[in-house]
Design brief:
Number of strands: 12
CATH architecture of the largest domain: 2-Layer Sandwich
Structural class: alpha+beta
Number of helices: 10
Order of helices and strands: HHEEHEEEHHHEHEEHEEHHEE
CATH superfamily of the largest domain: Histidine kinase-like ATPase, C-terminal domain
Distance between the termini: 41 Å
Oligomer: single chain
CATH topology of the largest domain: Heat Shock Protein 90
Length: about 475
């Protein structure tokens, strides 16, 4: 769960616990108060009716029908019934009431001369009742009244339902309040997150607004902007340093290359050891020249001074020409790989910088030559939406894959191989390992400038498979390019 979700959950849980705690306290307090009031009223009424009954019996006002009629004449109310146990015989005010309506324990206590009261549940539906018993020793009798608590149970049921609904509503409102509060509280953090994402994407001019009314955020804003200023300054210094060093190296390298050409003209006249030394010198010098050229191009990309010219071309023609140019660059010993182009993408148009695309294909072929024994096939087909690690969902693309039959790339290194000067374990176990460590970094940089992407994976044969993806040009909006 995110921070916002956790805050919302805490507010909701807090509202739930608080509402049900208060609801439970209110329910049981009300229940206790109502029950105590009902018990007190039941005791008062029972004592009053017992005195009335005693006075009528002692005055001889017993009706001809006996004690049952006398009990029925008492003011007991509609929710209660009277029972008189006289010399072991029970008389009731209603045919629905009997001696067994009073719990045996309560009868025993009252008959024994003790005033008692008991709350209990009777019947198949569990009807709550109160029974109050008063002994009348002067006539050797015990008087009971049984009160129904169904109206009290109904009242408590309504109260319970109301409190539950109120608790649910309070919980929902608490969660809504937590959601609102989390958005308000996390709004500054969201701004910092967006700024950090933009900076990670290369937008080094991104800053947080310096004007804020919250004193708690003033320090964060100032520190964040100062940190980004330092990062931008350091990156610009490093880019300028790389560019200056590369420029300074080009002049002596040009002189060395010219001198090497003069010596190579008389290569046949030199002794064998000198010829070998001159060949090694030539290979390292040309490798050095490529490295300086790559550094210059990367430094221009870092400085944002690169020019990209995107042309609308068909995929088939583009790939074939780029492969031919790459094979020529590798020299006479390189073999041209087989190019397989799916018929349905042959004439699909993409927007590319032709020079950069040729450089991408050359670098991929050279990488396969150096580390995988040479490229064996190049396949071109339609790409799936969101393919690759940085694929953009919903974007149609053309995927161009270069495969070799080398030992492949470890999964943990498939993203690192596109870093500058990273060669990893491949430099010691794949092929000759004569690369500069900048070729794949330039591939990723060129693809980024052409709105594409590049990634590495394993081929079906177990070798390395480098894939580049170019977005399909929208025929209805060619101005995009």
């Amino acid at each position: 769960m995110g921070i916002g979700a956790r805050i919302t959950a805490i507010f909701g849980l807090g509202a739930l616990l608080l509402s049900f705690s208060m609801g439970g306290l209110s329910y049981f307090t009300t229940r206790h108060f109502l029950l105590a009031e009902r018990e007190s009223a039941a005791q008062t009424q029972t004592f009053a009716n017992a005195l009335t009954l005693l006075s009528k019996i002692e005055s001889g006002e017993t009706p001809p029908s006996g004690y049952s009629a006398l009990l029925a004449s008492l003011d007991a109310g509609s929710d209660s019934n009277s029972i008189l146990i006289h010399r072991g015989v029970a008389y009731t005010s209603s045919i629905s009431t009997s001696k067994s309506s009073v719990p045996a324990r309560l009868r025993a206590e009252v008959v024994g001369g003790t005033v008692a009261m008991q709350t209990y549940v009777t019947g198949s539906h569990g009807q709550p009742q109160i029974a109050v018993g008063v002994p009348i020793p002067s006539i050797h009798a015990a008087y009971f009244e049984v009160f129904s608590l169904s109206d009290l149970g109904h009242t408590l049921g309504v109260l319970e339902g109301t409190l539950v609904v109120a608790g649910v509503v309070t919980t929902v409102l608490g969660a809504a309040l937590g959601r609102f509060a989390s958005r308000r509280l996390l709004r500054p953090l969201t701004a910092v997150s967006r700024a950090a994402v933009a900076i990670a994407g290369g937008q080094l001019d991104t800053r947080l607004p310096s004007e804020t009314t919250d004193p708690d955020l003033e320090g964060l804003t100032t520190s964040f902007n100062a940190m980004v200023d330092q990062i931008q300054s350091r990156i610009e210094r490093e880019a300028r340093f790389n560019s200056d060093v590369s420029h300074e190296l080009r002049s002596p390298l040009t002189t060395l290359a010219a001198s090497l050409e003069v010596l190579e003209r008389d290569l046949a006249e030199l002794p064998p050891r000198a010829q070998r030394a001159l060949q090694l010198l030539g290979e390292d010098l040309r490798r050095f020249q490529r490295m300086v050229g790559d550094l210059l191009e990367i430094s221009r990309a870092d400085a944002g001074s690169t020019d990209v010219f995107l042309d609308e071309v068909s995929v088939g023609e583009l790939v074939r020409r780029a492969v031919e140019a790459g094979v020529r660059t590798l020299g006479d010993g390189a073999t041209a790989p087989q190019v397989h182009i799916t018929p349905d993408v042959e004439m699909v148009h993409v927007g590319v910088d032709k020079r950069r695309f040729e450089r991408v294909m050359t670098n991929l072929l050279e990488n396969a030559e150096n580390y995988g024994g040479g490229a064996v096939s190049i396949s071109v087909d339609a790409g799936e939406n969101g393919a690759g690690e940085n694929g953009a969902p919903g974007q149609r693309s053309i995927q161009i894959a270069v495969e070799d039959e080398g030992p492949g790339i470890d999964p943990s290194e498939r993203t690192k191989v596109f870093e500058r000067f990273y060669r990893g374990s491949a430099s010691g176990r794949r092929g000759t390992g004569t690369g500069t460590g900048l070729g794949l970094a330039l591939v990723a940089e060129h693809m980024r400038l052409m709105h594409g992407e590049a990634w590495a994976e394993s081929s079906a044969a177990g070798g390395a498979r480098f894939v580049i993806a170019l977005p399909v040009l929208d025929e209805n909006d060619s101005s995009t390019w």
